[in-house]
Amino acid sequence: MEYAPPMTGIEATTGLFALALPFIAAALAPMLTRLLKQHACWPLALAPALAFLFFLQALPAVAEGNVLLFGFDWIPSFDVRFSFRLDGLSSTFALLITGIGTLIVLYSGGYLAGHQDQGRFFSFILMFMGAMLGLVVADDLITLFVYWELTSITSFLLIGFDHHREAARRGAIQALVITGGGGLALLAGLIVIRELLGLSSMSDVLAAGDALRDSAFYVPILLLVLAGAFTKSAQMPFHVWLPNAMEAPTPVSAYLHSATMVKAGVYLLLRFHPALGDTTLWTTILPLFGSVTLVVGALLAIRASDIKITLAYTTVASLGLLVMLIGVGTEAAITAAVLYLIAHSLFKGGLFMVAGSIDHGAHTRQIDHLGGLGRAMPITFTAAMLCALSMGGITPFVGFLAKEEIYYALEHGDAYHIALMVAAIAGNALMFAAAFVVALKPFVGRMPETIHHPHEGAPTIWLGPLTLGVLGLLGALFYGAYHAYFSGPMASAAMGEPVAIEIGWVPHLNLAFMLSLLTIAFGIILYVFAARLRSGLADLLAAIGWGPDQGFDQAMRGLLRGAFAITNFLQSGRLDIYMTVTVILIIAALFGPMAYMDAFPAMPEFPSLAFYEWTVLGLVVLGIFAVVIANNRLTAIVSLGIQGFAVALIFMLLGAPDLSFTQFMVETLSVVILALVMTRLRLSAADHRPLRESLPDAVLAIAGGAGFGLFLLAVTQRPFDASLSDFFESYSYTIAHGRNIVNVILVDFRGIDTMGEIAVVMTAGLAILALIRVRVGRKGERYPDPTEQTP
C-alpha cells in the first residue's frame, strides 16, 4: 500500500463534508418531517447518497492500493488530530454504511409512515450513520474512540426509541452498559498505545510493523482491544444485548445490528490484524470465542420463534464466524472473512427488511403463525429468496463465494483446523435452515385464518431488500470487478500486503465444494425438522434456566444493592459522623506527609512582643476560654468570633487595613450564619454529653489545631521565594494598570478565582435567606419531625 500525499483544499473539504452530511441531515430531520411527513425520507436520503458518491469516486484510487489521508489538527498540544484514513478496508465499510443507509432511510419513511415521532427517529438513525461512518475512516486513535462511543450512545437512543415499553428501555440500557464498558476498555488500550509506545494514529500503528507484538505491553493492549471488539460484536458471553436490541423498530435492526454497528468490533480486529495478529494469543483467543459464538448463536436462532429474533441470533453466529476466521489469520482466512462480511451485510440487511415487511403486511412475526404470503406479497417473497439463497451459500450469489473460501481456508489436517471446520459446517448448516425458515416458510403453504388481508408494502418498503438481494447476485456474476474494487482492496488492507482474490461463482470439484454440498444437505434436513428442533431446544434451555441474559439482570441488581449499601454507610444522615470523618482525614493529611518525610518543623524561638501584641494574644486566649466554658451554644458561637476579630486586629496593626476589613466581614458573616443554623436546628441549648463522648471531639480539635500550626511553621521556615511577589510588583501597573497590587491580583490575575469566591458568598447568602424564611412547624416546632405521621 502506498500513502498518497494528504488530501488538501477542495478534496479534503469534500471529504469532511461527506462525513458531516449525516449529522446535517439529522439536524434538519424534525423540520423536514413536519413539512413533508413520510415523504421527508427522500430529501433525507440524499445525505447518505451523496456521501456514498464521494466514497465511490475515490474507489479507483483505493483499488490501486493508495491510502488517502485528510483532516486537521484538533488538539495540537496533545497531538490529537481530527484525521481520517481511506484505504480498502475503510472504503468498503464506508460504502456499505452509506449505501445501505440510503436504503434504510427510504425504508423508514414507508415503515414508520404516520408515526408521531418519525422526525426524532430520522435524527437518531442519521446521527448513528454519521458516527459509524466516522469510526471506520478515523485515523487518529482518540478520534476513533470518540466515534466509537458515539455509536453506543446513538444506538442506545435507537434501541430505546419506543421508550414507553419496558422491554425497549431494558434493551437500550443493556446495550449501553455492555458496549460502553467495552468502550472504556478500548480507551485504556488506545491510551497505552499512545502514551507508552508513542503511536497516535492508525497509520503510525500500521507503519510501526512489529512494534506492538514486540512490546512488553502486548498482552494488556491485546486484551483491552479484544474487550472492546468482543462487546461491540456480541461475542459470547457478551452477545445478550444484540437479541434484546430487536425491541427497536425494524429499520434499526436492519441497519445497526446486521450491516453496521455490530461490525464495528470486526472492523477493529481487521484493522489491528497487521499489528496485533499472528501470535499464539491471537490465534487462540479469537478462534475459541468465535467458534463457540458461531455454534451457540446458530442453535439459538433455530430455537427462536420470532423472525427478528431468529435473524438476530444468526447475526450473532455470523459475527462469531468472522471473529474465528480473523483469528486464524492466514491470507485465505482473511479473504474468507472479507467475502463473508460483505455478503452478510447484503443478505442480512435485506432479510431484516423482509421481516419488517412481513410484520407490516401480516401484522405478526411469529413463524408458526405465518404461511401462504407469497401470492399476496410476491415482491417481498422474491427479495427474501434472493437474500436467503445468498445466506445459504448457493451459487451464483456472493454468499457462495464466501462459504467456499471459508472451507478452503480451513483445509488442513491438524486437530486445530479440523475442530474449526466442524464448527463452521455446523454453524453454516444451522444458518442455512434459519435463512429458509425466515424466507420460505412464511410465503408457502396455506395461509392461517388469523392473517387478514396481507398486502405488499409501499415501494420504499420493498425497494431496500430487493436491491440488496439483486446486489448479492450481481456481485457473484461479475466477480472480477467485485474482487478488484471491493473484496481485494479490503483483504489487502486487513493483511497489510497485496492480496489477489480469484474465486468465482462456477463450482470446482474440490474438497471445499464437497463440504459445501454437505452443509446444504445438512441444512435441508434441519429445515425439515426445524419445528421439532425448535421445541427440543426450548425445552433444553428451560431446563438449564439461568443464562447470560438473566446474569446481566442479577449483576445490575447487585450493582444497585451495592451502591445503596455503600451510600447508606457513607451517607448515614448524621452530621456529627460527617464532621468527624472529615476532621480525621484532614488531620491525616496534615500529619501523614510530615511523618513519612520526617519534615516536622523546628521549634521556633519565642519572639519579643510589643504590649499591643500581648493584648491581641490575650484576646485569643480569652476567646478560647470563653468557648470552652460557655453554658449554651449561642454564647459559644459568639465567643468563637473573638479569634477571628483578633486576627483582624493584627492585620490592622501591621498596616493591612484592607485585609483587616475583609477578616472582620468574614468573621461576622460566619457568626451570623452559625447562629441562624443553630436556631433552626432541633438542638438542646447546651452540650450535655458525658466526658467519654465529648473527650474524643476535644482530642480531634486539639490535633487539628496542632496540625495546622505545625504545617504553617514548616512553610514559614522554608526559604522565601520572592519571584511571584516580584512578578506582581513589576507587572500590576504595566499589564493591569492598577497600583493597588492586592486589588489587581483579585480582579485581574485571579479574576476567575474571585468570581468563584463571589459565587460561594452568593450561595451562602441564599442559604441564609432560606433559613430566615423557614416557617415554624406545627405545635411550635421549628423543624417538623420527619418520623411523625401526617394525617
Automatic annotation (TrEMBL):
GO biological-process terms attached to the record: monoatomic ion transport
InterPro entries to which the protein is assigned, alphabetical: CPA3_Na-H_Antiporter_A (IPR050616), MrpA_C/MbhD (IPR025383), MrpA_C/MbhE (IPR046806), ND/Mrp_TM (IPR001750), Nuo/plastoQ_OxRdtase_6_NuoJ (IPR042106), Proton_antipo_N (IPR001516)
Localization per record: Cell membrane; Membrane
Domain MrpA C-terminal/MbhE as annotated: residue spans: 696-773
Segments traversing the membrane: 12-32, 44-72, 92-114, 121-138, 144-161, 173-193, 215-231, 252-270, 282-302, 309-328, 334-355, 376-398, 418-440, 461-485, 505-530, 577-597, 609-629, 636-655, 661-683, 695-715, 758-776
Domain called MrpA C-terminal/MbhD: residue spans: 619-682
Topology term for the membrane: Multi-pass membrane protein
Keywords: Antiport, Cell membrane, Ion transport, Membrane, Transmembrane, Transmembrane helix, Transport
GO molecular function: antiporter activity
Record domain NADH:quinone oxidoreductase/Mrp antiporter transmembrane: where: 138-421
Residue ranges constituting the NADH-Ubiquinone oxidoreductase (complex I) chain 5 N-terminal domain according to the UniProt record: 75-122
GO (cellular component) term, any one: plasma membrane
Main location: membrane
Protein name, UniProt field: Monovalent cation/H+ antiporter subunit A
Organism: Aurantimonas marianensis
